[in-house]
Amino acid sequence: xxxxxxxxxxxxxxxxxxxxxxxxxxxxxxxxxxxxxxxxxxxxxxxxxxxxxxxxxxxxxxxxxxxxxxxxxxxxxxxxxxxxxxxxxxxxxxxxxxxxxxxxxxxxxxxxxxxxxxxxxxxxxxxxxxxxxxxxxxxxxxxxxxxxxxxxxxxxxxxxxxxxxxxxxxxxxxxxxxxxxxxxxxxxxxxxxxxxxxxxxxxxxxxxxxxxxxxxxxxxxxxxxxxxxxxxxxxxxxxxxxxxxx
Amino acid sequence: xxxxxxxxxxxxxxxxxxxxxxxxxxxxxxxxxxxxxxxxxxxxxxxxxxxxxxxxxxxxxxxxxxxxxxxxxxxxxxxxxxxxxxxxxxxxxxxxxxxxxxxxxxxxxxxxxxxxxxxxxxxxxxxxxxxxxxxxxxxxxxxxxxxxxxxxxxxxxxxxxxxxxxxxxxxxxxxxxxxxxxxxxxxxxxxxxxxxxxxxxxxxxxxxxxxxxxxxxxxxxxxxxxxxxxxxxxxxxxxxxxxxxx
DNA sequence: CCTAAATGTCTATTGATATAGACAACCATA
DNA sequence: TATGGTTGTCTATATCAATAGACATTTAGG
Lengths: 246, 246
Prior knowledge:
Largest sheet of chain A: 6 strands, antiparallel
Low-confidence stretches of chain A: 1-6
Number of strands of chain A: 11
CATH topology of the largest domain in chain A: Chorismate lyase
Oligomer: homodimer
CATH architecture of the largest domain in chain A: 3-Layer(aba) Sandwich
């Protein structure tokens, strides 16, 4: 199903090998090659995309660099990793529960924390005075030891003093909130956009440059509707999809 | 706010001028240059991104091609268009209502229609027997004469015979359903992913190659929960954001 | 154990991408 | 009207991206 085979585009500022790498990565995630566990031969792919075999080789080399495939002389190009995590977005969205059994091991790392005055945008979202102190956490989430998202999240400092340590110890926002006396919270809005990966994305999420990033900006409130957290999370688009159930 | 200034990346398969074009486009949509209505001078941008002025010029030429900016010798590079449409995704998601007053004129074009047997994936989603006949519509939606989405949508043929004509005349799914006796329908699930634009996207949505596409796969049912429509819609990521309100 | 089917390596050539520098043309404004 | 700031154009050079062809090397299977 899905949209039909379209050809690659030239002179667009995106190298052919990168377009082809993206397409093959998507096909792998889509399960197109599950029957064989291998990517089609270089000759076949070259004909399929209408390019030279060497161009396909560049694409496969990039995917090998990402650890998605492994080429073996005489045998073919074997698929090493094949995944696309699904994140349900609901009124009770939780990172770790959302992954569910799609991954065995889940992990939340605190990269950095700071206190700072709220910007105009942030104060409006959290409904606090402009310039009021907020705690900012930079976090990295992993599933089965592979990074799946990079987040910047803000909390009102007066209410959630010490959340840096709570998160650092637990690796979970839900648990950190609970440690500070907030037993439940609700997702009230999520904005989803997409962009190219920036330098920090490439490093933290272990992507190859030119990758696409899904950006989710989320606002959580306590059960009374008072904003408790605003978060901007960045996910590799070829590893993740969001599902909104109404 | 938002993520900090990161530099462009070399030898990634994505040309520098394209990365810079994407960044400037995003800054425009973000309102960063609202004070002057102009993009900063080429020299300044070149210094900012750490590249040669000519590289910046290539980026600006691409944006001019898209109609986003217009360079005037002696004056600077003026911003011509600055928009990012917001699409709320709710249980009652409707394209035209969703845009609301963000655009004055809305339009739905029927590009192509066909009848075909349902694939395995489609039959599961619409809960009809595999191979049962479905009607497929290829549509293009515009707001203020600019294309904002390209959709492929499927309907069970037995229940919605003649929907091609109904849509073609009305330019609205909601109205077409009503003409065929379905007065209301509900959005039950939406899957959101992102990918690079393909050839058809570039042509229909009038994008420059390498652009990013947000893909929404949506299932609508009648009030009794019986699936009536499955749609795959593609939106230019730099023009659109989705908002999920819970 | 030979052969077909793969991937690996090498050389050569062309066009796109990026840098560098210089100068022309144009506009707003002091 | 002179000047500073800005975009437009030109030449030159180096590197990356893509094509082309030939041949080596490895693996699986008859």
